[in-house]
Amino acid sequence: MKHKNEKGFTLTEVMVSATILGVGVMGMAAMQGVSITKNVDANDMLLATNAAAEMIERIENSRQYSWVYNTLNTGLANSPVGAPVPGNCAALPVLIPAPPLDAKQLATLPVGLQANIARSVGGDCTQWGARLAATGLQNVQGVVNINSLPPVGARTRLAAVQVNWTDRAQGNRPRSVVMQSVIVSENGG
């Protein structure tokens, strides 16, 4: 009697391969969760970066009076708990406080022009705040800082626009994007 040479898988081989396959499938499932979280983070970063770039463009558009944008703050919007915290967009003074180097320039401006500049900058701040709120980012806030760069009197400024928010993941960790641009006024403003 001859033995037939039967080939097949043993129960042990099937169990080992099923275990390896199960670990691989579970790893892929875990990667899906990480992938979705990272995609949400990347989308939030894109929204914040675009918002910061928009404000930089607004400041560059008003480069002659870029120092007026200093200390703008849109306040906190889209807070999951409580009402939004107002910023200083609506509270811009009619007479713009100038940095010491710009006091002479400011004194030469008619009061009506000063009021128009304040209205324009306040409008930019208010519109930017609305755009930030429309992004859907949690606790989103926009802040602008304008600093003079050396040499003194060169009318060259560094504009730093910061967008802060909290991420949507567990723990609500604070996130931030800062965009900077050197602003040079063409006409010495």
Description of the molecule:
A hairpin with an 8-residue loop joins strand 1 (75-76) and strand 2 (85-86). The chain has one domain. The termini are far apart. The model has no long low-confidence stretch (mean pLDDT 83). The strands form 2 sheets. It has a 3-stranded antiparallel β-sheet with strand order 3-4-5, covered by helices on one side. A two-stranded antiparallel sheet has the order 1-2. It has helices at residues 11-61, 103-107, 111-134, and strands at residues 75-76, 85-86, 138-148, 156-166, 174-184. The chain has 3 helices and 5 strands, in the order αββααβββ. It is elongated and about 115 Å long. It has 189 residues and is an alpha+beta fold. Helix 1 (11-61) runs antiparallel to helix 3 (111-134).
Topology:
Blueprint (H helix, E strand, L loop, with lengths): L10 H51 L13 E2 L8 E2 L16 H5 L3 H24 L3 E11 L7 E11 L7 E11 L5
Q: Short summary of the structure?
A:
With 189 residues, the protein is an alpha+beta fold. The protein is 42% helix and 20% strand.
Q: State Rg.
A: 28 Å
> What spatial order of strands do you see in the largest sheet?
3-4-5
Mean pLDDT: 83
The backbone outline, from C-alpha atoms, is elongated
- Beginning-to-end CA distance, first to last residue: 107 Å
Share of helix, binned: 40-55%
The stretches of 5 or more residues where confidence is low (pLDDT under 50) are none
Note the beta-strand portion.
15-25%
Number of DSSP strand runs: 5
> Structural class of the secondary structure composition?
alpha+beta
Helical segment count: 3
- How would you spell out the order of helices and strands? HEEHHEEE
Let me know the largest β-sheet: 3 strands, antiparallel
Number of domains: 1
